Amino acid sequence: MSNDAWSVGRSIAPLLGLNAFAIYLTTTQAVVSPFLAEAWGLDDSEITFLAGIISLGLIGTLALTRMADRRGRRRSLLLGFLCAMGLSVASGLAPGVASYAALQLLLLAAAGAVQVGTAVAVAEEVSEDARPVGQSWWGLTGALGGGVPFLVAPALAGFAGGWRWMWLMAGAMLLFGPKIRRSLGETSRFTRAERSGATERAQIRDLFGERYGRRTVGLLLAGTLRPISIIATFTWSYYHMVQTLGFSAGTASGIVIGAGAVGLLGNPLGARLAATWGRRPTVVVGASVAVLSGIAFYFVPTDFPGGQVVGLMAVFCVNQIGGNAFGVADRCIDTELFPTALRATYAGMARLCAAIATVVCQFSLSGLTGIVGGLPEAIAVLSLATFLPSIPIFLWAAPETRGLSLDEAAMEDVAA
């Protein structure tokens, strides 16, 4: 990585740290699923139903992201961080399914707001030509944070209630609270918009007006369909290895961590492609690779050359590279096409669509599992049915922003 890229990473380090913590929390929710199923006696249909209930919490992200556009990125991020930390500890102490689901619902709202807010702040803080690099760092550090649960799970799997410590550990972040508060500043773009009065004038309905309507409607529709396939293929990969294939937690974590480490290459690759090839083609190709390989993961045969573990590792490597490259370009699109006073609001609406996608995904899988014969078959059917129509919708809605300043891409001067 070039010295310039390292400089970009250092300049946004507090934002990257917050994002890594938030992604640790959202990833843990998926990693603990087989342990929850064992502890509380839940079958495939019941554990997917629980995941659907919990995913409703992402709807609450919109309120915090709207706050980020009215009161500032810094205030919203600090509130989201503190709430997420407290709710994580409380989740580790939950006595049963109902209380756990309620706490997780609130936790996902707070963690989602931190993820959205940091992506927006990264776009506003880096230089004009470094936005793909900034989003690459966001994805890279987020992947590292998301990898921690897979490292911890095998060590705790042998202990009764060991999964609880994966939530309780979040309380250690309280030690870093004062430093985060000191180092996290407001973005200059938000300060400029606030001083001009744009943050007070801007209304949510402006996103659906003549200027931004096509972008908003098309991207939100594509952003509802496409995540269903990505969520379906990724969320249940660890569960599939442990619960369906009977792998140990250590083997499953080794596959995820090993392939995930290789997959980190997708972040700089996505930054390069987004900057040279363009945001739109990088989104389409990256997402296609991620979804198709994600489906293939559930059908790797036991007689794969070299063994099933080798096959799972190879497919998951491809999945992670494609997914990370897609993520860089997708975050560029989402944070570049809307003005400062509505940037976090749109990102929160996109997160709301992702929440809807998550709910639809988990409840659909719960119903389809019994109809088509199993969870892998349900994942394949649902993923293809939702991903394929998302491609033309996205291409219709999203203009290319490669080579444009943030103001030009977002039509900021015109909107002001």
Write out key terms for the chains shown:
single chain, mainly alpha, 79% helix
Question: How would you describe this structure to a colleague?
Answer:
With 416 residues, the chain is an all-alpha fold. Helices cover 79% and strands 0% of the residues. The protein contains 22 helices and no strands. It has helices at 3-11, 13-31, 33-40, 44-55, 61-71, 73-92, 97-125, 131-156, 164-168, 177-183, 188-196, 198-201, 213-235, 237-244, 249-263, 266-276, 279-297, 308-336, 340-372, 375-397, 406-409, 412-415. Helix 8 packs across helix 18 and helix 13 (213-235) crosses helix 19. The radius of gyration is 20 Å and the shape is globular.
Helix and strand topology:
Blueprint: H1 3-11, H2 13-31, H3 33-40, H4 44-55, H5 61-71, H6 73-92, H7 97-125, H8 131-156, H9 164-168, H10 177-183, H11 188-196, H12 198-201, H13 213-235, H14 237-244, H15 249-263, H16 266-276, H17 279-297, H18 308-336, H19 340-372, H20 375-397, H21 406-409, H22 412-415
The overall pLDDT average reads 87
- Helix percentage range: over 70%
Tell me the total number of β-strands.
0
Shape: globular
The oligomeric state is: single chain
The main sheet comes to:
none
Portion in strands: under 5%
Order of helices and strands: HHHHHHHHHHHHHHHHHHHHHH
The low-confidence runs, each spanning 5 or more residues with pLDDT under 50, are none
Distance between the termini: 37 Å
Report Rg.
20 Å
**Class derived from helix and strand content:** mainly alpha
The count of helical stretches stands at 22
